[in-house]
Write a structure and sequence with these properties.
The chain has helices at 2-6, 15-21, 29-39, 49-63, 72-82, 89-101, 150-161, 173-176, 197-208, 273-285, 294-300, 309-316, 328-332, 335-340, 343-346; strands at residues 85-88, 121-123, 132-137, 169-171, 220-224, 244-248, 253-258, 262-263. The chain is an alpha/beta fold and 357 residues long. It folds into two domains: 14-67 and 341-357, no CATH class; 68-340, no CATH class. It has a five-stranded mixed sheet. A three-stranded antiparallel sheet has the order 6-7-8, with no helix packed on it. A hairpin with a 3-residue loop joins strand 7 (253-258) and strand 8. The longest helix has 15 residues, at 49-63. The protein is globular, with a radius of gyration of 22 Å. The two termini are 26 Å apart. The model is unreliable at 353-357 (pLDDT under 50).
Length: 357
Amino acid sequence: MLAAFCQRIVNSSDPEVKEHFSASALMNPVQRLREGYQSGKLRITIDSDLEGIIIPGLTRSLARMVPVRKDDSGFRAFCIQSRIGWIKVGFIRRFVSAHQRRAQDEVLLFPRRQELPRGSFYEGMPPENRRRFAVSHGWACENHPTPSSERIHRLALALKTAHADDDDAVFLDYASLFQNPRFGTRLGLPPQRDRTAGESKCFRTALFEMSRMFAFGGVKVIVLPQLERWQDFPAVLGSQNAPVPEFSEVKNRACEKSDLWGWINAVPYENRGWCAAEFSCALKAGIIANLEDPDVQRVLHARAWPQNVDEYQKMMDDPAIEFTDKGDSDFVAYLFFKMSFDLSAAQHGQPSGAHGP
């Protein structure tokens, strides 16, 4: 049980493991142990060890765990171990200005983590006197989050509305987490290198702990739910070939796919697995910076957002919720659980509730 709270269970999707270590099953760990012992499913060599050693040890460990929303030390460790790249607001503004001035046939894409210019970001943690923002959004296509850069323009406007300073910091997944190479040199851009072994480890660490980015009280979340048209993506050699329908094994249906940009994402924000998880965490924590934005209000009223783990699991079981990678659902299953788990209730053997603002 402690492993479920502190580490990633790599085979969590196995049926036998899922039965005992799903998020809903872990909401009351002390009672779960007692029920397992009483039913005979949990075997203990010395019966008295359950109440004398195991449960007291579990409750002591849980009592030391600070809720994610208030866990400054845990957030700091997450950012440093994942080598998060926090983009300086000033760099985002300079990119938007350069994008507006570019030549008509010039391709200018927002850079991924490995290509961020020196001095354009903070690695690990920004300075204490800098505000921190995290962007929740769905990628426009498989190979780049915003080929048209429309999302970066929207982000700059949201940061202006939030009165962000040039030296404040922004988490944007593509530019903050180490990425795999997405496309070759067909756009006339330098080739992208693979992630190193160390960078891959940082990426996996970040995925498992991503609830911290969208639930920690020291971060304000900017939600950018708008879809982008593939017709606005940069053209190749003066032409823009239309995507063609192709069967997706992940989604089990035909989807549009571009030879250059990969799968084209046309699923609304509220029906995307990662987006729904991020929005649920941020909404519950009360840290959405642009909640009053009309497009964000539409998302807010698009579905009944969860208030507890059971409601979250029901939302994730909704057939309308889609993922772009088969393994993503295993990561997302624990995001709301890790944010909402009430340790003080758990250590007294009572059902746990969700942390609010």
